[in-house]
């Protein structure tokens, strides 16, 4: 043990006694949740009927988490801290439930689970039980904002929670299994972005209990000096606590906590009062305790405590094996519950001596229920940012650059309140959002060079080449009551597929809990998209994130494909104002035709899907064919096809329908934004051919609309995994999404046209042939394509 952290007395004997009492009570309650159905205080001999029929849960990590919770209580109460804890080992649900019950926050949230014997029995029964609560630190647990079922994201969430919360301490317990994941390994670099002036502090607590489910953990097997060097290389100052003797570990842990918090306070004071600018080397506590500490040392002749066998349920046969039942009773009684709870089952004064009061309790902190803290975002009027559109399709703008101006204003308007952040993997300028730099630079605490641009110790734009970190930071930021947007290349947002899935599940569950207030939505801007990655090629071409998201909870997910700059402004305004959603916005950054003035854009986006009368030729009658489109490039190709049909087949009645909100295609009973069959048939008809040009994989549109009356008449064109480095128009030709192919589709599917319009179809096919020859000779698109504009 390092010299600065010996076990000299830092606690009075009285403090030690009460801390140990709290820890033993938490251990008892954690074990009780895994095993007991009745007889919660062991007031009668333990019998098989008192045991749950299915033993579920994770004991191995629980004693270590209980130790951390106990000692956080001590420093929070002693120092008057506002604190939050992110529990990385999400399987430690029994511990966090036990501690929130002890401190009273659980019973305040769920009055039917009182802080007495009846409430204790209900606490035990409901754990991992039908109709009860999950075994993870789920949304149902007061004080939680991180479930940890999927490991690797705790530290990123902790840093996101600390951003722009200067008075907050965020403790983060990192399991040594979790520490092996890539996202967690990258998260150690978050300390290079934490501003000691405007942000709170993160105290990582690396809990090394040695094992995962069945294997040793890498970091626990490193020699202490090697692990110490690793953490110092990450820029942390490690403080080590090791042992299996509770008295020694309590004293060492208290000293470690005090040392870490003193260092944090001094670093913040130096930055805030003295103007210190040197990057802070923040403390990290390395806690080594046995897995399954204080549980059965041996079961059936096999070692359990301190091994992987204690990971879940150390004694699995207690209902059928009398020896296991005897061991369980001895184990539970070893905590001396008669000293910890009175005759009514209430925690005694010694157990509660270290517990903070009111909102400072970890289970009652409003920072873990961010909807209580969130404020409306000051959104400026769109009129000041909209592009003028006198006629459709005659002027060009880069949609995301226009959005960047809006986001820059939001940055300016939140400069004092600091509750809006933009995150992305090194792509803010690439995605044309650089106007935000007029209001805020990029957060950066590491060294700088004269050639650097826009780096700012106090910046609110977050860039790091790790989508996992961007996602984790933003989730932590939103969950603690702030706002933000994640900008990414469309193809590489897949890196966080699993993370967004976890967040959607969190939101879905939270929406069902009346005590959890709605938080700001998680907003994605996906740009540099599939149709304009012609220069980077096949590896950068994947529009499938939309498919992934639309598989998830319909009450949470929203997907928008605005076709131009003004519709992008309208959609972004809506998304940034919304609550408890995951909004995916797909928009291009290349010059794109402007189709709608801002007032029409607002109405069209509110409608979600609508007929563009100016683009069609139905003249008040029924259409012969419907051209549908969703996405900026598909919209342009549909309008170019409509123009070709107008010129070549003027007698044909063509309807153009643009879809911005892709969920509108779903039935109303399957998604809140879905259309009724009457609405859908009114737009697309029930019996006319529909040629639909879609931004992504075409089968998604079929899946969304398969129950519609006109589905057998629906023909969808989209990306079909045919990509390369080529010209922009060749991308759509390669995937049969081009205007000429769409005209050919109309001729093929409208009854009577195959013969009557054979010459027109031939001209369209010839145009595709000319295209192939032209690009191979000139390296650019045909002039008739490159110079095209809308002219009705």
From TrEMBL:
Domain Xylulose 5-phosphate/Fructose 6-phosphate phosphoketolase C-terminal: 589-790
Limits of the Xylulose 5-phosphate/Fructose 6-phosphate phosphoketolase N-terminal domain: 11-372
Keyword Nucleotide-binding attached: no
Primary enzyme class: lyase
Cofactor annotation: thiamine diphosphate
Pfam families named in the record: XFP, XFP_C, XFP_N
PROSITE patterns: PHOSPHOKETOLASE_1 (PS60002), PHOSPHOKETOLASE_2 (PS60003)
Domain of life: Bacteria
Keywords annotated in UniProt: Lyase, Thiamine pyrophosphate
EC code: 4.1.2.-
InterPro entries reported in the protein's UniProt record: Phosphoketolase, THDP-binding, Transketo_C/PFOR_II, Xul5P/Fru6P_PKetolase, Xul5P/Fru6P_PKetolase_C, Xul5P/Fru6P_PKetolase_CS, Xul5P/Fru6P_PKetolase_N, Xul5P/Fru6P_PKetolase_ThDP_BS
Record Gene3D superfamilies: 3.40.50.920, 3.40.50.970
PANTHER family the UniProt entry points to: PHOSPHOKETOLASE-RELATED
Family: Belongs to the XFP family.
Protein name as catalogued: Probable phosphoketolase
Organism of origin: Streptomyces fimbriatus
Organism placement in taxonomy: Bacteria, Bacillati, Actinomycetota, Actinomycetes, Kitasatosporales
């Amino acid at each position: 043990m390092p010299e600065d952290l010996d076990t000299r007395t830092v606690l009075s004997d009285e403090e030690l006694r009460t801390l140990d009492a709290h820890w033993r009570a938490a251990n008892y309650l954690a074990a009780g949740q895994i095993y007991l159905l009745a007889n919660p205080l062991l007031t009668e001999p333990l019998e098989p009927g008192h045991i749950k029929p299915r033993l579920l849960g994770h004991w191995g990590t629980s004693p270590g988490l209980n130790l951390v919770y106990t000692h956080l209580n001590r420093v929070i109460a002693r120092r008057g801290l506002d604190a939050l804890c992110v529990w990385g080992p999400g399987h430690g649900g029994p511990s966090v439930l036990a501690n929130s019950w002890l401190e009273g926050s659980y019973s305040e949230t769920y009055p039917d689970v009182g802080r007495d014997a009846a409430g204790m029995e209900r606490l035990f029964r409901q754990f991992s039980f039908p109709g009860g609560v999950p075994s993870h630190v789920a949304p149902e647990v007061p004080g939680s904002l991180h479930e940890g079922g999927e490991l690797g994201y705790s530290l990123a969430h902790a840093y996101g929670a600390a951003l722009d919360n200067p008075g907050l301490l965020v403790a983060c317990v990192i399991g040594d299994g979790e520490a092996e994941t890539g996202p967690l390994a990258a998260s150690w670099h978050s300390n290079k972005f934490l501003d000691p002036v405007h942000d709170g502090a993160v105290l990582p607590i690396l809990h090394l209990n040695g094992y995962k489910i069945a294997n040793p953990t890498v970091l626990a097997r490193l020699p202490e000096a090697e692990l110490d060097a690793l953490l110092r290389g990450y820029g942390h100052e490690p403080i080590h606590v090791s042992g299996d003797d509770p008295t020694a570990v309590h004293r060492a842990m208290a000293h470690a906590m005090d040392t870490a918090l003193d260092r944090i306070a001094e670093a913040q004071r130096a930055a805030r009062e003295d103007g210190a600018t040197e990057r802070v080397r923040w403390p990290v506590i390395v806690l080594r305790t046995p897995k399954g500490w204080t549980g059965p040392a041996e079961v059936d002749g096999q070692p359990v405590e301190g091994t992987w066998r204690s990971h879940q349920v150390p004694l699995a046969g207690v209902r059928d094996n009398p020896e296991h039942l005897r061991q369980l009773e001895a184990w539970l009684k070893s905590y001396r519950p008669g000293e910890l709870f009175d005759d009514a089952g209430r925690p005694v004064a010694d157990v509660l001596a270290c517990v903070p009061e009111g909102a400072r309790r970890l289970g009652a902190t409003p920072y873990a229920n961010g909807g209580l803290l969130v404020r409306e975002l000051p959104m400026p009027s769109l009129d000041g940012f909209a592009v003028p559109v006198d006629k459709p399709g005659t002027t060009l703008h880069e949609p995301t650059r226009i959005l960047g101006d809006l986001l820059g204003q939001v940055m300016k308007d939140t400069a004092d309140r600091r509750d809006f952040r933009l995150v992305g993997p090194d792509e803010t300028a690439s995605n044309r959002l650089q106007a935000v730099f007029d209001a805020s630079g990029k957060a950066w605490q590491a060294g700088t060079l004269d050639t650097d641009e826009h780096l700012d110790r106090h910046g609110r734009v977050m860039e790091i080449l790790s989508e996992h970190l961007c996602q984790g930071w933003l989730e932590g930021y939103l969950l603690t009551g702030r706002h933000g947007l994640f900008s990414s290349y469309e193809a590489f947002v897949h890196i966080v597929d699993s993370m967004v899935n976890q967040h959607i599940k969190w939101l879905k569950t939270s929406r069902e809990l009346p005590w959890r207030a709605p938080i700001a939505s998680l907003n994605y801007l996906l740009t540099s998209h599939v149709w304009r990655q012609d220069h980077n090629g096949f590896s950068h071409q994947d529009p499938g994130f939309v498919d992934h998201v639309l598989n998830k909870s319909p009450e949470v997910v929203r997907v928008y494909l605005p076709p131009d700059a003004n519709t992008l402004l309208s959609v972004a305004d809506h998304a940034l104002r919304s609550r408890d959603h995951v909004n995916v916005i797909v928009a291009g950054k290349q010059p794109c035709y402007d189709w709608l003035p801002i007032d029409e854009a607002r109405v069209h986006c509110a409608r979600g899907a609508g007929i563009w009368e100016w683009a069609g030729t139905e003249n008040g009658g029924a259409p012969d064919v419907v051209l549908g489109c969703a996405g900026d490039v598909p919209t342009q190709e549909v309008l170019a096809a409509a123009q070709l049909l107008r010129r070549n087949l003027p007698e044909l009645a063509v309807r153009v329908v643009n879809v911005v909100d892709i969920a509108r295609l779903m039935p109303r009973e399957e998604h809140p934004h879905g259309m009724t069959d009457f609405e859908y048939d009114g737009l697309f008809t029930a019996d006319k051919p529909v040629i639909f040009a879609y931004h992504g994989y075409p089968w998604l549109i079929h899946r969304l609309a398969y129950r519609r009356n006109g589905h057998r008449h629906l023909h969808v064109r989209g990306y079909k995994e045919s990509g390369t480095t080529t010209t922009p128009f060749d991308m759509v030709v390669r995937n049969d999404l081009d205007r000429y192919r769409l005209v050919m589709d109309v001729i093929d599917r409208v009854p009577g046209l195959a013969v009557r319009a054979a010459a027109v179809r031939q001209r369209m096919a010839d145009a595709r042939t000319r295209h192939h020859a032209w690009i191979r000779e000139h390296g650019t698109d045909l002039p008739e394509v490159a110079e095209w504009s809308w002219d009705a």
